[in-house]
Amino acid sequence: MKFSVTVTLKKDVLDPQGKVVQNTLQNLGMENLKSIRQGKYFEIELNDNDQIKAEKKVDDMCKKLLANLIIEDYKVNKI
Amino acid sequence: MNSSVIVFPGSNCDRDIASALEKFQFKNQMVWHKETKLPKSDLIVVPGGFSYGDYLRSGAIAGKSLIINEVIKAANQGCLVLGICNGFQILTETGLLKGVLLRNKNLKFINKDVNIKVINNETKFSNKYKKDQILKINIAHNEGNYFTNPNHLKDLKDENLIAFKYCNKNGVINDDFNPNGSLENIAGIFNSKKNILGMMPHPERMVDNLISNTDGVNLFSSLLN
To answer: Which residues of A fall within a CB distance of 8 Å from B58?
Structure first.
């Protein structure tokens, strides 16, 4: 069973990298660019067959290591 | 005084701090991160560097290493713990210190000597300094931008848990003299019991006039006091 996890900075936390990417794209002439936030992406494969159990495990992984909940949010999706 | 310096793959200030500790007659031992037992220690130092290449987030992987469980146990029993630079980042990842160190606001790795002001001089780590004393200490980091939630910031102020703040050479604290964008110019904090200090500046680099200055010496003599 395979999941994707996206970790992004919470919206009130400054994201200087996203800002620089945004500025650079604007310099390249990309118009109507409102905002860019940079994040991290993980693909996680588990041997479990029970989706609920597997999702719980992935959630635990996010809380324990993949995201720092003080500054980051995460989203889990089955793929 | 017995001290232990924890060594991770990628630590690079471990020998500097060991040599500073030995200079001040600490009986020091180096402890590899895979160890599961700490030697008898009055002080544990989590040194600077780039543990695990800063993979995932600075300090995140080291914060889950085997020896860290022992460091957490010892800290909860009152053992003194000092985290410098990457060590500070690791301590926030373990939860021993609250808050987080974000990427420097200007996105640059900063390596320079900066001024910091001693905010609380009534702790095991700072009693040999004068209150509001201005020190010149080296910083060398990419993620030193301290951030925490408003409730914790209030606790830091109300309980006098801010150790050092970035300032200019006259002690003025404002955005112009904040090298990395850290909240209220915070350069170092204590936990609520004040047995744990995390700081971005490197006191171990300031113990000898031959290579820098001696502004870091009183941190070590405070610990011995």
So the answer is: none
Number of cross-chain residue pairs from A and B with Cβ atoms under 8 Å apart: 30
The CA-CA-CA angle for residues B195, B99, B196, to 5°, reads 10
B162-199 pLDDT, tens digit per residue, is: 999 999 999 999 999 999 999 999 999 999 999 999 99
Annotation marks residue B167 as catalytic: no
Taking the C-alpha atoms of residue B1 and residue B5, their distance in angstroms, rounded to an integer, is: 13
Asked if the Cβ–Cβ distance from A71 to B102 is below 8 Å, we say yes
Tell me whether A28 touches chain B (CB under 8 Å): no
Structural domains present in chain A? 2-78 (3.30.1280.10)
**The CATH number of the domain where B93 resides is what?**
3.40.50.880
Q: Do B103 and A17 touch (CB under 8 A)?
A: yes
What confidence category does residue A17 fall into, taking pLDDT thresholds of 50, 70 and 90? confident
Q: B69-91 burial by CB neighbour count: b if 16+ within 10 A, else e?
A: ebbbebbeeebbbbbbbbbbbbb
Calculate mean pLDDT across residues A57-68. 97
B82 contacts B125 by C-beta, under 8 angstroms = yes
- B149 CB neighbours in chain A (<8 A) are 70
Structural domain span for residue B133: 2-224
Q: Report how many domains make up chain B.
A: 1
> Does the annotation mark B143 as catalytic?
no
Q: What is the pLDDT of residues B90-147, one digit of tens each?
A: 999 999 999 999 999 998 999 999 999 999 999 999 999 999 999 999 999 999 999 9
Which pair of tokens denotes residue B63?
Answer: 């914060």
pTM for the whole structure: 0.93
Residues 119-178 of chain B whose Cβ lies under 8 A from any Cβ of chain A: 147-149
Distance from CA of A74 to the nearest CA of B (A): 14
